[in-house]
Structures are given as C-alpha cells and as structure tokens.
Known about the structure:
Elements: E1 2-4, H1 14-28, E2 32-36, H2 41-49, E3 55-59, H3 62-70, E4 75-77, E5 80-82, H4 85-98, E6 107-112, E7 123-128, H5 150-171, E8 175-179, H6 182-186, E9 190-191, H7 213-219, E10 225-228, E11 234-240, H8 256-267, E12 271-275, E13 282-286, E14 289-294, H9 299-302
Parallel strand pairs: 2-3, 2-6, 3-4, 8-10
Antiparallel strand pairs: 1-7, 5-14, 6-7, 8-12, 9-11, 10-11, 12-13, 13-14
Amino acid sequence: MSIANNSIRSPRSDEDLARLVISVAEATKPDGIICITETGVLAQHLYRLSGGFRVIATTTNNETYDILAKAGLEVIRLPLHTADKYTQIRHAITVVLRSSSVSVGDLVICAIGHDVYQGEGNLIVLTEMEASVEKLAVSDLIKLTDGIQPKVLESAVTVACKIGRAARRGKRIGAIFMLGDSLNVLKGSKQLVPNPFQGHDKANRMLTNPDIHDALVELSKLDGAFVLRGDGFIQAAGVFLTSPPTETKLVAGLGARHAAAAAATMRTMATAIVVSATDGNIRAFSGGKMVLQIDPDIAQGHIRMSA
C-alpha cells in the first residue's frame, strides 16, 4: 500500500506528514517506521509523536546523520541517492534490512518527505520485509541500455569508489567511465593522449578484471574519459568527449566533467559513471540526467558487488 501526495497544492509540512504516518501506524501496528530525510526534521517529529512505535531514520546527509545520532535517535546512513523517491524507498528498505535493524517478515512503514526530492510530494509505503530485497544491486537501481552487463556497472562503481576515496584524501583526481554504445561515444570524440590500452591483451583490458583496478585509479590522473563496451572491454582512456551543446538536467554546482558526461549520454545510449575531483562522490548519468549518487566511503558496505 502506498499513499502519495502529488497534488498541485503545497506538500504537507513535516509535522503533518509525521502525524499521518503515525495514524497509519496506529491502524496497521507495524514492527517499525523507516523515515527517509535530508534535513532530519521529519525524523524528529516522528520520534516525538511515535509513542511506542520504533522509528529508524535514514539519510544521505552527513550533517543530518551526526545531528540525529548525537540526539540519541536511531539513524542509518544511506550510501545512495537514487533518481526518484520510489527507488530511494526501495534502497532505504534494503539498507535497513541488511543492517539487521529489521528482519524478514516484519511489517514496516516507510515515509519520505518532500525535502528529499524538491518539487515532489511526500510518499508513505506500507510493506512486509522480503528476503529478496537483500539481493538489491547497483544495477537494479539504474536502467541499463545497449547490453551493459550488470557486473560491468558494478565493477565501474567499485573502481569509481576507489578513485573517490583517493580524491577525498586530497589527490584531486576524478574520472568518467562511459559504459556501452562505445562506437557512438567515440564518434566525434578526441584522443587526448596515446591510448594506454592499445596493444594490451584482452584480459588486461577488461574492467571486470580486479587485477587492473589499481592501474585504472592511476590512469584517472589523465585528462579525459574511459570508454568501454557493454561487456567491460576498455576501448580507450584519455578521451575528450566532444558532444554538442544539449539541455541536460544537472544538479547545481556540478562542473565541466559532469556536463560532458551527461551530454554524451544524451546523444548516445551509454551510461556514464562520473567521479568528482571536488567531493569524491560518484554520480551516474543516463539520457542526460543524473540517476544515482553514491558516497564512496560506504557504498560497497551496503550494496552488493558481483564477483
């Protein structure tokens, strides 16, 4: 069961949403209430109004996590910010279940406020925890195109997280991994440096080979993007993406690397995994839009990576 507040009128306040959640809880007697919040305000209202109901707050925001934890509230960090509130709720349920905070078979209410996705309404979901949700992978949260294999996407995220952690240690490195539709990605693009993968055997050009991951981290110091086939074969590195100007929907504050990757996914069927040299976060783009954001410090702890 889900209750969505998507009407034209202004969304309910956090306090009003909390009251609605508690009224649903009183009618259904759940084993817990999962709250997804960016500011922490919804979680604080739920704790105040909860009575005997257990409330688990989840957030992608570091400051909000610290504030709620210091206040003594039960809170879990979410490693991913997905494209929409529906997949974010699915992600939150997965993380909470895998943290052993709830058990398979438990009945839970999951609520997400309008502060998480600006301009969208609130959402309340009543669900029973299922074992299958524990198997959620990164590839389940992104619509893959052009035959991109899930293990290739997950390998790209693994390497991107290594680069992101290095960026957070002050190395100021970033990267773009263009996955799938590689021939079209390369059309019109420019090779900035001699292709470092030219002449190497196939095994050492496969992203799914963990033996080359450290080398990829070092190669991320080069300008340009990695361009890969959907099966993980690395066509080239050090590629300058020369896409014509397009109307991409970027989050404010993202720079030229993200704009170039987003534009390339708009003119091709590729998916882009981008590592920010500024904050170390990993963002995925498809169709010119950001569809996922990953915290490199905790992503692999909660999201299954295929071997």
